[in-house]
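Lecture 7, part 2: worked example. A protein chain together with pyrrole-2-carboxylate.
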Amino acid sequence: MQRYSGFGLAKHALSHNENWQRMWRNPTPKKKYDVIIVGGGGHGLATAYYLAKEHGITNVAVIEKGWLGGGNTARNTTIVRSNYLWDEAAELYEHAMKLWEGLSQDLNYNVMFSQRGVLNLGHTLQDMRDIQRRVNANRLNGIDGEVLDTQQVKEICPVLDCSPNTRYPVLGASWQPRGGVARHDAVAWGFARGADALGVDLIQQTEVIGMRIEDGQILGVETTRGFIAAETVGCVAAGNSGVLARMAGIKLPLESHPLQALVSEPIKPVLDTVVMSNHVHGYCSQSDKGDLVIGAGIDGYNGYGQRGSYPTIEHTLQAIVEMFPTFSRVRMNRQWGGIVDTCPDACPILSATPVKGLFFNCGWGTGGFKATPGSGNVFAWTLAKGYAHPIAAPFSIDRFVSGKLIDEHGAAGVAH
Ligand code: FAD
Ligand code: PYC
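Predicted complex, written out as structure tokens:
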């Protein structure tokens, strides 16, 4: 990584960034690739990176209709944790957690992964029973987790209102110390730079508008810049996955919903961990530049507009003020939305399809940022070999026929 002294930085600022190197090329699409990835978010870029790095498959294009990382990757609230209930999901998210722990070194790019711990609050006896169960399951899977009482929560997060006088007093929490946050756009840029350096073509401002399929085999994709051939295509398009699946005549069990977030004006450091409450229904962390990063649940209706509605913002901020009364005078700076693709069991789809060579990585709903390196890693393996990586296998679309669903609504909780 290039490093600049203070003088070097000033010189570059005054030279209007003259001689700065591009992070990645801007290639003209080739007529044919070995693999096409549709969607240049974190998951698509990670897939391309691991295809090149771990499988030596470098004749790869990532086709992105907008700009790299401009979808949910740039719109999420960056919470990373692996405290999922069922073995299959826990293994998938813990695989990602282990990759997060070495990611900045691997990419030689600082993704600002900060293991500041994640608290999931309990406000009722049933919450506490669910927390106990999930922490036990996590520990049996070798994942760090503790059950805390009210006093221990207060010690970790003094700014949280833990008094008995609230509408839903805090009875305790689960605590995952290895959880935390990472800088979302740096994750996209790090994977993009790494993939490009290994020979992957990153093709922006190019939309996939159709699929060419003959005798049950994918032959390539129709794009706004013409047809591009490949006999292996991985669709990693988050909220637009249902639209892409329809182009191939496939109906996926997905709903697309807006999910919103807000950031406040920057304030002095007050919150050095991540706090989530399924029950009061809000979550908050503080970014390194001081903003409070806030969110809650999806807007109830389906849609593809990346915004969301006012009642959800109001509901979210009511929850935040209830948990953190001292935040009531902080002003909100910005609000935005992304389109999340939710599955009936709140788990993702990592799967082959009835069309030979066509694969989908989607359904991450409100919680896929934390999975980014793990998802890309197992999906690359799946595309390279043509059959599912053992960690990905339980997340096949066949589960919606066999009934072998993996219900993670509890772990996905706060945002669903
Ligand atoms: P994206 O980043 O959305 O990438 C998909 C890309 O596909 C987009 O760039 C899109 O432009 C492109 N595309 C779509 N259709 C086409 C087409 N036809 N042709 C070409 N390109 C196409 N997860 C967490 O783990 N922790 C959180 O704290 C968290 N908070 C969230 C908060 C909000 C407000 C939102 C919206 C989401 C949150 N998530 C969180 C979920 C997380 O953001 C997503 O699950 C994850 O980022 C999905 O990554 P992706 O690469 O699959 O999707
Ligand atoms: O999955 O941890 C999560 C999450 C938090 C906010 C949105 N998703």
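The chain has two domains: 25-78+184-254+345-400, 113-180+256-340. The pocket of flavin-adenine dinucleotide (ligand 1) is lined by residues 38-44, 63-66, 70-73, 75-79, 207-208, 236-238, 240, 244, 259-261, 295, 338, 340, 364, 366-370 (CB under 6 Å). Keep this in mind for problem set question 3.
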